[in-house]
Amino acid sequence: MISPGSLNALRVAYNGIMAAQVGLDVVNHNISNANTEGYSRQRVTFEASPAFSNPSLGQTLAGGQIGMGVQLQGVNRIHNTFFDGQIRNQSNVLNYHDEYADAMTQLEDILGATSGQSINDDVQAFFDSLHELSINPESTVARNAVLQQAEQMITQFQTKGQLIADLQASLVGDPNVAGSEQDSKLATMVTEVNNKLAELAALNGEIITITASDGVPNDLYDKRDLLLEDISQYVDFETNFNDNGVVDVTIAGQAMVRGRQLSDTLSVVANPGPAPDPDFEPSLVRTTTGAFDITNNAAPNTITGGKIKAIIDVSGGNTSEVTLRGALENLDLMLRTIATDINALQTTGRDLNGAVPTDNIFLPQPPGAGLEIFNYSVNPVLEANPDRIATAAGPPAVYLGPGDGSNALSMAQLNTSNPAALGGSDYLSYFNTLSSNLGVNNNSHKSRVENSTSIMNNLEQTRQRVSGVNMEEEMVNLIQFQRTFEASSRVIQTVNEILQTVINLGR
């Protein structure tokens, strides 16, 4: 008679083979994804199958006497959510300062703060030409040189200013061009966030479907966490993880993803004003459904980090540091002050013929209340008749003749004055202060980038030690499951030989 134990041995060996096969599959999956971004290694766990007694006459079945081998307990994802949260936070900080520093570096290049070619060169050349005119007030060449240098200085201011305005427009749109916000870098970033929020909601739906049938979607959890890291580059947000692994996302207190539902998205809209000032913040980021501004509210209902916050701040929203709009306003004030001060002396001195001119060197005069940097020009009346430049002292001083260059000298000496409009700085120092503050701010952001990068690298290394695939460990597991498979196969072969022998004996 064939013993029930022999048949049980076949079942036990079969369980061993199946368990080893699962183990080999998991090892193979780990090895294949060793270089997959965001992948967390998986580990198979086993437990003993429920045992039963050897049945015989008068004996009931009872557990714990004859083992049934091994059964699969689960395939676990080796992961630590603490590191995920820390990495998302640092990613948010890192990308804020990196984006800010990138714009500051471009602004430095525009202003020539790092190359030595700056607006100050043309300002100094203009005042040098005035000094030369004070020495040779009767020289037509010297008079034309002053007008040419004035034109060159204005061109330099306007060229730099236009580059700054273009940079701001590329980031957040132009307040004077309808619809430009939709072509901005800000709009591209918001679209990227919306796409990832939609992906997350869809992924939540897949997770819900699989977990509803008691499945464990480890790979989908990896994709979920990777999506959250991607979103953290752009905005900071709050997460709520449900028991089934589904995550809800809130941005600036506004529900964006709830389970499989995309509750809301973000939109870029032109700033209608008056607060914040559209010149400094041309575009706003709002929730599409609730029209809630996520960048201009009190905490916690506002974003505080990420690329989106950075380009809004660097464009003009940050009042405590150098910004693009702030730098443009600085250039406007500098040119406005030079023009106003020169025009004041021009209209109180005497020209080559001894007359007190009414024609200003710079137009417009007086300047308007808004940004005037792009409206300035040299008066064409003077370009046609440079003799009307007021080089001599005006009333009540006695006219000393065409050789008097005292008023031109007073104009030249304005370069070392300290106008109240510039906070008591002379023209060159005012620009140097702007450049210096720009450099300090940029270096500060670059330093934060370096610090955050170092922290990110340390966190990632620690996470990889926990979740990353260790090839040596996988090779050990591979050999272990291979040997288990071979041994269980050998058991089946042995039991099969025994059964054949028993069958042959019964013939």
Question: What descriptors fit this protein?
Answer:
507 residues, alpha+beta, 4-stranded antiparallel β-sheet, 12 helices
Question: Could you give the count of β-strands?
Answer: 10
Question: Helical residue percent?
Answer: 40-55%
Q: What Rg is obtained from the alpha carbons, in whole angstroms?
A: 38 Å
Kindly report the average pLDDT value.
92
User: Which class of secondary structure composition applies to the elements?
Assistant: alpha+beta
- Biggest sheet: strand arrangement: 3-4-5-6
Order of helices and strands: HEEHHHHHEEEEEEHHEEHHHH
Parts with pLDDT < 50 across at least 5 consecutive residues: none
Continuous helix count: 12
**Shape summary:** rod-shaped
Biggest pleated-sheet summary: 4 strands, antiparallel
Query: How many domains make up the coordinates?
Result: 3
* Percent range for β-strand residues: 5-15%
Determine the N-to-C terminus distance.
Answer: 12 Å
